[in-house]
Amino acid sequence: MSCEANMLVTHRIGHRPVRAAAATITLAAAIMLAGAAGVSAAPSTGSSGSSDSGSSSGSGTGSGGSGSSIPRSKPCNQSTQSGGEGVTDTLHHLGTSGPTSFVLAYETYRIPDQIEVFYQGSLVHNTGYIGDDINQGTGSVVVALPSGTATSVLVRVTGPGGTDWEYTVNCPTS
After folding, report:
1. 3-class DSSP assignment, residue 2
2. How far apart are CA 105 and CA 80, in angstroms?
3. Which of 22, 33, 19 is nearest to 69 (CA)?
4. Which domain of life is it from (predicted)?
5. Could you tell me which of 3, 13, 47, 56 has the fewest CB atoms within 10 Å of its CB?
6. Nearest Cα to 108, choosing from 89, 90, 129?
């Protein structure tokens, strides 16, 4: 709501009802967008953040655990790179619905990070915290998706201070 519109409504009905209504409308819009993308029930952490050196479509997020609660969006086969600590949610468009599978390739370097994959709001894969001085968290895994209607997965990376990571959601081959 613009400042002028906010002032006009404030004079007529007061601050609190307008702010509550605006927050409700914003939340409803976010839920509708997430539902349309197939991530209707992914758990919320209250923070997201990363600066991504790859190109993306959709909304970006800030770094350090603050930013938009709507995840940025990317096609499959495009690398996602870390901007640092915090939680980073990215919606990856696969182009097909489940059942299917795809390869998640990752590099978490020397500081352990956790990578979780959600499909239609359900956790379908969790790497646990991976990465250390010995293997530097280099690896890949085949993520199997159950039957469903969504054509996207939500990938959530959680990392502590000083972290750096990258991963790629490869497009399904089937």
Report:
1. coil
2. 10
3. 33
4. Bacteria
5. 3
6. 129
Q: Over the chain, what is the mean pLDDT? A: 71
pLDDT value of position 83: 61
- C-alpha torsion 36→89→70→147, nearest 10: 10
Q: What is the pLDDT of residues 56-78, one digit of tens each?
A: 333 333 333 444 567 889 999 99
8 Å CB contact between 60 and 52: yes
Task: Return the amino acid letter for 135.
Answer: N
Question: What angle is formed at CA 119 by the lines to CA 90 and CA 47, rounded to 5 degrees?
Answer: 40
The answer to whether 72 touches 91, Cβ cutoff 8 Å, is yes
pLDDT of residue 174: 64
Cα–Cα dist 59/75, whole Å: 14
Buried b (16+ CB within 10 A) or exposed e, 150-169: bbbbbbbbbbeeebbbbbbb
